[in-house]
Design goal:
It is a single chain. This protein is an all-alpha fold. It folds into 2 domains: 35 residues, no CATH class; 63 residues. 73% of the residues lie in helices and 0% in strands. It has 4 helices and no strands. The two termini are 57 Å apart.
Length: 99
């Protein structure tokens, strides 16, 4: 896609006239033909794009869910280390208190 638009930009830039700040005339821009894929191919591209976006949304949801779980585990761990007198991590609790 990027390559496609770069080619179009290069083609349009060649139409520009002038020295330091080249300008495009509306007539030249309107006369420029831009080739597009056939309609069936465009539909296939859109379908693949939608699938990719749905996958991204799903992955983002999983990432958010995992971050939430990690935060809950961290809070649980530190609560147990700092507040629970019968901490399973007694060795760690002693080390933290000494330092």
């Amino acid at each position: 896609m990027k390559h496609f638009f770069q080619k179009i930009c290069q083609k349009v830039e060649l139409l520009a006239e002038g020295g330091g700040q080249p300008n495009l005339k509306v007539v030249k821009v309107k006369a420029t033909l831009i080739q597009l894929p056939q309609l069936e191919e465009q539909k296939a591209i859109v379908e693949r794009f939608i699938m990719a976006m749905n996958l991204c949304d799903s992955l983002e949801g999983h990432t958010t869910n995992n971050r939430t779980k990690i935060n809950q585990l961290e809070q649980s761990f530190f609560r147990e280390v700092y507040e629970d007198k019968t901490c399973r991590f007694g060795f760690l609790q002693k080390h933290i208190i000494q330092n």
